[in-house]
Structure formats: structure tokens, C-alpha cells
Amino acid sequence: MKALDLDSKEFKRVMHNLHLENLNISSDMQEKVLELINTKTSITPTLIKDILRHGKI
Q: Which pLDDT tens digit goes with each residue over 28-38?
């Protein structure tokens, strides 16, 4: 998989879907998420819940 960035079509789609669910993440958090994705870290439901609950990775 290619490395994603804030301007990639795939990441914009994810952000749009989050917006539709009334979920927004800060630009700092977006960059941290991209870093996780680009290092091939598994994105699990638990990881997502922790991020949303605590606001940090």
C-alpha cells in the first residue's frame, strides 16, 4: 500500500466519513493517525476507542 498523506484521496474519504458521523479529529491527531497507518500499525476497534476516549495515541 502506498504511503498516505493529508491530501491523499483515501485519507480525505476517511475524514469525510468521520464528519458524516459527527466525529472530528484535530490536525495533530490526523498526522499521528497517518503516521500509524504509514508504519503499518494495526488499526483495531480498541485503538480507535482509546484515541477517541483519551484524545491521544
A: 888 888 888 89
